[in-house]
Design goal:
Helix content is about 30%, strand content about 50%. With about 120 residues, the chain is α+β, with helices and mostly antiparallel strands. Strands 2-1-6-5-4-3 form a six-stranded mixed beta sheet.
Length: about 120
């Protein structure tokens, strides 16, 4: 598997975590020091990995159990050594987000080090 394929697999697992409200999977795909930052209609939001995992787990029933349709599109993936930048568009909780992930390869595994999100609609 190429580096880009491995990164895309991590992104797919990220979206599966959101879709199934799986906090453990959130913790697996995000680096332990990750930050999740972006704007919603009420202003700037900043979360640690633990806070984001708890938020994802609190979405009950999960989007999957609610009958939501999976919508994930990886727009760009640029790899530079043990770092990568990924731009993606996803639907989550009835909203469309444009995300930028900064990713790191540590001890042979890729993880999301930071997530910047923009609410498109």
């Amino acid at each position: 598997m190429t580096e880009e394929q491995t990164i895309r697999d991590c992104v797919d697992r990220y979206y599966e975590a959101l879709f199934t409200s799986n906090s453990e999977l959130v913790r697996e795909v995000f680096h332990e020091k990750a930050m999740i930052v972006g704007y919603l209609t009420d202003g700037l939001h900043q979360m640690t990995r633990a806070e984001f995992a708890d938020f994802v787990a609190s979405q009950q029933p999960s989007p999957k159990d609610s009958g939501s349709v999976k919508q994930l599109e990886i727009l760009a993936c640029d790899v530079a050594g043990h770092t990568a930048s990924v731009r993606l568009r996803e639907t989550y909780l009835g909203m469309v987000f444009l995300d930028t992930f900064g990713m790191l390869k540590v001890a042979g595994s890729w993880s999301i080090y930071n997530k910047l999100f923009h609410l498109e609609g």
